[in-house]
Amino acid sequence: MTKTTIPIHLDINGQHHELQLEPRVTLLDALRDRLAPTGTKKGCDHGQCGACTVHVDGERVLACLTLAAQAQGRAITTIEGLAREGELHPVQAAFLEQDAFQCGYCTSGQIMSAVACIREGHAGSDDEIREYMAGNLCRCGAYPHIVAAVRQAALEVAS
Amino acid sequence: MRDFDYIRPATIPDAIAAAAEPGSAYLAGGTNLLDLMKGGVTSPERIVDISRLPELNRIERLDDGGLRIGALVRNADLAHDAAFARTYPAVAEALLSGASAQLRNAATVGGNLLQRTRCSYFYDTASACNKREPSAGCAALGGENRLHAVLGWSDACIATHPSDFCVPLVALDAVVEIEGKAGRRHVTLAEFHRLPGDTPQRENALEPGDLIVAVRLPAEAASFAANARYLKVRERTSYAFAVVSAAAALVVDGGKIRAARLALGGVAAKPWRSRSAEAVLLGAGANEANFIRAADAALADASPSGDNAFKIELARRIVVRALMSAQAGTPERLPALPASPFSNIPGARHDA
Fold first, then answer.
1. Cβ B101–A47 below 8 Å, yes or no?
2. Where in chain A is the domain with CATH 3.10.20.30?
3. Which residues contact residue A51 at a Cβ distance below 8 angstroms, ignoring those fewer than 6 apart?
4. CA of B158 to nearest chain A CA: how many angstroms apart?
5. Theoretical Cys-Cys bridge with B158: which of B205, B207, B257, B305, CB 3.0 to 4.6 Å?
6. CB B7 within 8 A of CB B47
7. Nearest by Cα to A64 from A109, A29, A115
8. What sequence ranges are listed for the domain 2Fe-2S ferredoxin-type (chain A) (predicted)?
9. How far is B227 from chain A (nearest CA, A)?
10. How many structural domains are present in chain B?
């Protein structure tokens, strides 16, 4: 096997990045270690906690179980890409209003997941929100407020 | 993670040629493979990324009434395909009861069949595991094994297959379409996965380079649409692998069972079709007494592989419950908590 890096182009929050990476670098490590925006968090690094949730071509996936090479040419959105012209995204605002976090470590993943959950149409009831947010763990146990924030944001997005 | 060569072939023949080389592994969604590579459980030297191969991400209705699901169709896309969910509701329910929304957006049909066991000793490279390292021994046999197999296990391996999706698929006579160096061939899903025997490292019918290109459902699979359910007991409300699960599908006419399908998950190294239970049900009255007889038949050969005798009784009860749920009829909408035995009781809280 030849040990080498490969050229990888990543489109993150509308910005184009050209990188030279070992093939084994995950999207999560590329984001955090090479490109500096550290809003995307590394929790378990094994696809069990959801802290690294980002959007690839508009859909939520786990950056820790995605190779950077797999994301080449796809439109990647991270928590840093949600706000528009200084205005918080409605889900970000709802998390603040509902106090939907304690330590905050899972929050960017929760918010990225919630934005997708609402867009998918899976925020129709508290039961549905709980089920479709099940991939995002919160060690502090802020779940009731997270559900309230998603419910509030879903109503705002619908109106 | 050990480093590897990364190639992204443009065609299926190129992919097969590359993957036939020793040390190669296909990469599709990556939700299981990358995790195994991080833990050093598997260390391929060459990753063949097939995720952008054309043709493999289509759901096709066949002229004979069957369905052909491309191997790269993602779990989420298949489960949320309205026509698919209406026609094969137990399969959609199984898909939605597995993993999380994020993982279902990455995981693929072909990859689901090739999931490795979640046995913790398989994942722990410091432990003996015949599946990971042939002839090393099995640490699970005398270890923490309450979630291990109760059917089809051997002294070499007591691991279970973790898939939900495969359970209704095997009940519905799914067929795996495989392309390899010698061309294309079809293997029934029932024959695709192997029981461990003395060679637990051989988990399925694939040879080096073989690529799953599609999973097919025969026309008859659609005849169960009105009475099909998947039920899954988990150790937490959601986002967990099955302790035990069951897919049940019936055709009932005038109170009599005209056709029956039953398969169990979480109990063996493969999705466990129970033809003996189906034989009990065929022509019998659709009632609880007969469902209990079928459950007894399904578990007749079960034996604990460790601290897991409870799974045999649990499996019996889940079989009865799945059959009763199927008889009651496929719900118009999937429950908010798919496949939960707790969400079907009128008045029960979904998170109880």
1. no
2. 6-81
3. A41, A42, A43, A44, A105, A106, A108, A109, A136, A137
4. 24
5. B305
6. yes
7. A29
8. 6-82
9. 23
10. 2
Residue A23 to residue A25: CA distance in whole angstroms: 6
Q: Write the residue in A2, A70, A117 that is nearest to B5 by C-beta.
A: A2
Token pair 């637990």 is found at B200
Q: What domain range is B311 assigned to?
A: 225-328
User: Rounded to an integer, what distance in angstroms lies between the CA atom of residue B342 and that of residue B52?
Assistant: 40
**ipTM of predicted complex:** 0.97
- Structure token digits, residue B1: 């993670």
pLDDT in tens, B94-129: 999 999 999 999 999 999 999 999 999 999 999 999
Contact status of A45 with chain B (Cβ, < 8 Å) = yes
Classify domain A90-158 by CATH architecture.
Answer: Orthogonal Bundle (1.10)
Per-residue pLDDT in tens (0 to 9) along chain A, 159 residues: 556 899 999 999 999 999 999 999 999 999 999 997 899 999 999 999 999 999 999 999 999 999 999 999 999 999 999 999 889 999 999 999 999 999 999 999 999 999 999 999 999 999 999 999 999 999 999 999 999 999 999 999 888
| Cβ-based burial of A75 (10 A; exposed 0-12, middle 13-18, buried ≥19) | middle
- Model pTM? 0.97
Cβ B270 vs Cβ B195: under 8 Å = yes
For residue B1, the chain A residues in CB contact (below 8 A) are: 24
Nearby residues of B238 by Cβ (< 8 Å), 6 or more positions away: A130, A131, A134, B337, B340
For B164-194, letters b (16+ CB in 10 Å) and e give: bbbbbbbbbbbbbbbbbeeeeeebebbebbe
